[in-house]
Structure of Cytochrome c-552/DMSO reductase-like haem-binding domain-containing protein:
Amino acid sequence: MFLRAQPLGLLLIAAVMLFPARITSHHESGPWHCDSDAGIRIRSQFRPGVITVDGKVDDWSGVSGSDFALLPALDPDAGKEYNAGRLTLKAVHDGNEAYFMLQIDGNYAYTQGDDTRCASVALMFQIGENATHHRMGGCEEEPTTCTNKTCRGHEVDIVHFSLGTAIPGRLYGGNPVDNKQGYGGDRFGHLIDLYGWNPHCRYLDGLGPSENDTSAQNDWQGSWWHSSLTDHSGFVIEDSPYASGGQKGTYYFEFSRPLRTKDHFQQDAQFTIGRSNKVSAAFWYPEEGKPWHGSAHYSVSCDWILLDFISADSSELTSAPQGSSWDFATTFSLFFSVVALCLSIIVGHRLSTTTRTANFTPMENL
C-alpha cells in the first residue's frame, strides 16, 4: 500500500522535499565575522484564545514584536542588506501551543510549482548545547561522517516553508498522510520539520544517515498571505497565481507548534514556560525575478536571539495597550454580569417574600 512505503521510498521522498533542494556552497567567501547585538530578546507572551493560524494577522495587532534588518547569511555586511524592508518577528503562547508570526515587505512573486521563484522562510532553534548559529549547528563532520554520535550536542531544529505549492490562507505542515509515514515532510505545501548538525547534514525528522525513526512526525502548522491578495471566499489551486506579480506589499507567515513534542531523538527543540530558547529566522526571495538557491538567504542575525516564554502570572500580561477594545469589552462584560447577578438576587428575594405572604392562611380560617 502507498502508506506503507519502504525505507528507500522514504529516502527518495526526503530527497525531493528536503530544504532547500538546490544547495550550492555554504562556505563563506572570506574570514567569518559577526557583529551581533547580544541584548536582543523576543518575548512570547501568554495570550490564550487570540491567534488563528490563517495567514491573516489582524489578531497580532496587540502583540509587540522585534524588527530586524535582513543581511546575507554567509556575508552579514550592512551594505548588502535586503533593501525592500525589515523583518518583524512576533511570538505568543497559550500554555500549550507556541505561535510565531513573520512579517516581511516584498513585491508579490509567485510561480506555481517552483519554490525558488516564490518567497520562503525558516525558523531555526538551538537543541544541543554546543549548536552554534553559524553553520547551522557548527558540527565539523562531513556528510559522510556526520551522525547522531559524531555530531552530538550540535543539533538544531528547523521549520521551513516554501510557497510553490501552498495556497494563501490555507493550513499546511503536519498532516495524517505524512505523519503516518513517520517523518517530518509535507507533500502538500512544503512546510517541513527538520533537524541538522551543519548545512550539509540535515534531515527530515524521523530520517537520518544511519537509521530511521518511524515514530517521528511534523509538529508544525502554518499559513501565509500577502497584502496585495484580495480574498472573498477562499482561494483554491485553480486561482494561482492568486494576484498579479510585482505588486508592492507585505508577506505574512504564521506558524504554530506544541510547546513540548514527543521527540526522543534530539530532533525537536522543547519549549518551557518561564525559560528561554535560542532562535533565528531566515528569508529567501527571487530578487529581480531570479530563482534563489539554498545558501543565498538572508538572516535576522549572525548569532542566536533569545526567545523568552512568559508565564501567565507575569507582569507582561499587563503590557497590552490600555483602552484596547478587548480590555474595554471584557471590563464592561464583567461589570454587566455582576449588576445582572445582583438584580436577579434582589428580584428573586422579593418574589419569594410575596409568594409566601400570598399563600399564608391564618389558623382560625382553616
